[in-house]
């Protein structure tokens, strides 16, 4: 099961949501509910304090969404975290976050932190942050196959929280073999696949993988 969560970030950073309408469950977070409705997608669930919507918009949301979970504006968890917690409770195989970039940096960095939750808690789920130019996801130690995508040909590997040990890249324009990547390194930004697919592997640490277009 895939769960797609749409936040309230800038509209101009949204990809074509129709490309991801693959029998996924759609969830709106606060103004993200209005984003979905404007794109012709009826959210299955809505989360938020909805303090940023007008009375008219709130009336529309209540008429379009059957399952709405409202919260006080003064709370410990942001709306996105509440939606992510719910999605993980549903045992989603993949959670995709849209409209989570391009706006407030604190919200974006918070979304990156939330993306690590399954990995750090050994939960069998993947979280991606997707916008018009990028796909971001996190990986723990292991070996992974990655396929070429001409729409997002640049691939960056960024150590997160700590250094990464034993990074090996095969099938890439700039290969690596058993390389130690310190936390502050930008060595692995803007690589490209030269084959139809390649592999990346490492033995210790957490990698943020970012696929980008021009």
TrEMBL record:
- Record EC number: 2.7.6.2
Q: A GO BP term, please?
A: thiamine diphosphate biosynthetic process
Q: Record's SUPFAM superfamilies? A: Thiamin pyrophosphokinase, catalytic domain (SSF63999), Thiamin pyrophosphokinase, substrate-binding domain (SSF63862)
EC top class, as a word: transferase
Residues forming the Thiamin pyrophosphokinase thiamin-binding domain are 142-208
Note the InterPro entries from the entry: Thi_PPkinase, Thiamin_PyroPKinase_B1-bd, TPK, TPK_B1-bd_sf, TPK_catalytic, TPK_catalytic_sf
Pfam families attached here?
Answer: TPK_B1_binding (PF04265), TPK_catalytic (PF04263)
According to the record, the segments passing through the membrane are none
Can the keyword Iron be found in this entry's annotation? no
Gene Ontology molecular functions:
ATP binding; kinase activity; thiamine binding; thiamine diphosphokinase activity
KW 4Fe-4S (keyword) present: no
Query: What keywords would UniProt list here?
Result: ATP-binding, Kinase, Nucleotide-binding, Transferase
In its UniProt entry, what is this protein called? Thiamine diphosphokinase
Q: Which organism is it from?
A: Robertmurraya siralis
């Amino acid at each position: 099961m895939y769960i797609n969560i749409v936040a309230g970030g800038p509209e101009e950073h949204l990809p074509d949501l129709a490309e991801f309408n693959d029998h996924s469950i759609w969830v709106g977070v606060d103004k993200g509910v209005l984003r979905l409705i404007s794109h012709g997608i009826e959210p299955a669930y809505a989360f938020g304090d909805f303090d940023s919507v007008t009375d008219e918009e709130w009336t529309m949301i209540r008429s379009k969404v059957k399952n709405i979970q409202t919260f006080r504006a003064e709370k410990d968890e942001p709306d996105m975290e509440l939606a992510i917690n719910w999605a993980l409770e549903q045992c989603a195989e993949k959670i995709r976050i849209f409209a989570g970039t391009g706006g407030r940096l604190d919200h974006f960095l918070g979304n990156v932190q939330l993306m690590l939750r399954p990995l750090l808690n050994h939960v069998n789920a993947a979280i991606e942050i997707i916008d018009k130019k990028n796909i971001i996801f996190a990986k723990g130690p292991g070996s992974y196959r990655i396929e070429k995508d001409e729409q997002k040909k640049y691939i960056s590997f960024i150590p997160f929280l700590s250094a990464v040990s034993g990074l090996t890249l095969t099938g890439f324009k700039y290969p690596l073999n058993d390389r130690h990547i310190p936390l502050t390194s930008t060595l692995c930004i803007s690589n490209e696949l030269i084959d139809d697919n390649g592999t990346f592997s490492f033995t210790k640490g957490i990698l943020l993988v970012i696929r980008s277009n021009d």
